[in-house]
């Protein structure tokens, strides 16, 4: 009798473990209907960076640090089986694969790509849609008027247009694009080095939450809007974090103006923890210590309430 009770106990224990593990797996794999996923966090040159002889890049080659993809967000709507990409980076081929393999696989590789401006990390990935690579037709590319003109009048990008690999959908400042019944995207102009095109950020509005995406801007005070007030209006704000401070690189910062992380933190220093929690830094130069999760600079700012984008992070909308 005792032996039967013992085996019954073992059976129930084993079954309990199986049920518990199944429950945990369900929790881990469950996704909301709509969400933003981070596909890249680095500045245009990526990480490791070309010609870099610094310790930060040496850590990658010594196996102490991982490659970081160029800044990009994926927008996923599981209910409507749709997905979009923000930025066409040099890492677009692997970013689209990640979006397909880990988030949503459909008959379309992507429902559309939203571009911010004509700097190398933000549009050159369009090359993968051409005949030398993917070679399919009519992939929607959302671009502002000057950005559209740049693509249509300059090679090799105009070949994508003439061969109808891409179909450019023209955007207008502050005019929303309705993606479906519960997703809107609105471009807005921001000041930046506009050698070839204008520069925009995006407001992404979901069923329940809203996000800002401003990977590039010269300085917050040059923008006609108040960044603090704009952050308060949304749930997430992915903001330009190219450089940590003035002393980071030995180069005239007037050539590559961006708001330093220290400047942004100073602007928000008197705001509530709720507001600081909305700030998610993204678009890190390879020299930026905040690029690495374990850096003391990053940890100190996290204690203040600020957040940092990492590849694979998901944000419900």
What does this entry look like structurally?
This protein is of the alpha/beta class and 317 residues long. It has ten helices and 14 strands. The protein has helices at residues 2-29, 55-61, 92-102, 120-123, 145-153, 157-162, 227-232, 261-267, 273-276, 296-304, and strands spanning 34-40, 72-77, 82-86, 112-114, 139-143, 166-170, 177-180, 183-189, 200-205, 210-214, 236-240, 279-282, 307-308, 314-316. It has a seven-stranded mixed β-sheet with strand order 6-5-4-3-2-1-14. A seven-stranded mixed β-sheet has the order 7-8-9-10-11-12-13, covered by helices on one side. Strand 12 (279-282), helix 10 (296-304) and strand 13 (307-308) form a beta-alpha-beta unit. It is globular and about 50 Å long.
**Content-based structural category:** alpha/beta
According to CATH, the homologous superfamily is Ribonuclease Z/Hydroxyacylglutathione hydrolase-like
Shape: globular
- Identify the CATH class: Alpha Beta
Profile the largest sheet: 7 strands, mixed
Uncertain residue ranges: 1-30
The whole-angstrom Rg is 22 Å
| Count of discrete alpha- or pi-helical segments spanning 4 or more residues | 10
Q: Report the order of strands and helices.
A: HEHEEHEHEHHEEEEEHEHHEHEE
Number of strands: 14
CATH A-level architecture = 4-Layer Sandwich
CATH topology: Metallo-beta-lactamase, Chain A
What is the first-to-last residue Cα distance?
57 Å
For the record, the count of structural domains works out to 1
Strand proportion: 15-25%
- Average per-residue pLDDT, rounded, comes to 87
């Amino acid at each position: 009798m005792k032996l039967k009770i013992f085996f019954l106990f073992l059976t129930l224990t084993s079954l309990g473990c199986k049920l518990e593990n199944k429950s945990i797996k369900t929790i881990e794999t469950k996704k909301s209907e709509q969400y933003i996923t981070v596909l890249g966090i680095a500045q245009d040159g990526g990480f490791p960076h070309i010609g870099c002889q610094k310790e930060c890049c040496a850590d990658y080659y010594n196996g102490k640090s991982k490659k970081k993809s160029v800044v990009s967000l994926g927008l996923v709507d599981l209910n409507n089986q749709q997905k979009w990409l923000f930025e066409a980076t040099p890492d677009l081929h692997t970013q689209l694969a990640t979006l397909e393999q880990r988030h949503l696989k459909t008959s379309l590789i992507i429902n559309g790509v939203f571009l911010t401006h004509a700097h190398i990390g933000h549009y050159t990935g369009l090359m993968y849609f051409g005949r030398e690579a993917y070679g399919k037709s009519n992939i929607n590319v959302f671009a502002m008027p000057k950005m559209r003109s740049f693509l249509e009048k300059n090679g090799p990008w105009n070949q994508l247009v003439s061969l109808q690999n891409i179909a450019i959908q023209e955007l207008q400042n502050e005019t929303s694009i309705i993606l479906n019944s519960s997703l809107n995207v609105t471009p807005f102009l921001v000041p930046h080095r506009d050698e070839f095109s204008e520069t925009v950020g995006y407001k992404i509005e979901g069923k329940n939450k809203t996000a800002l995406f401003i990977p590039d801007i010269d300085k917050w005070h040059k923008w006609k809007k108040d960044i603090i007030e704009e952050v308060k209006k949304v749930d997430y704000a992915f903001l330009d974090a190219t450089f940590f401070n003035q002393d980071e690189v030995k180069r005239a910062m007037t050539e590559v103006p961006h708001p330093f992380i220290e400047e942004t933190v100073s602007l928000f220093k008197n705001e509530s923890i709720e507001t600081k929690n909305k700030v998610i830094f993204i678009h890190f130069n390879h020299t930026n210590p905040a690029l690495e999760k374990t850096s003391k600079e990053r940890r100190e700012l996290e204690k203040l309430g600020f957040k940092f984008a990492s590849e694979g992070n998901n944000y419900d909308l």
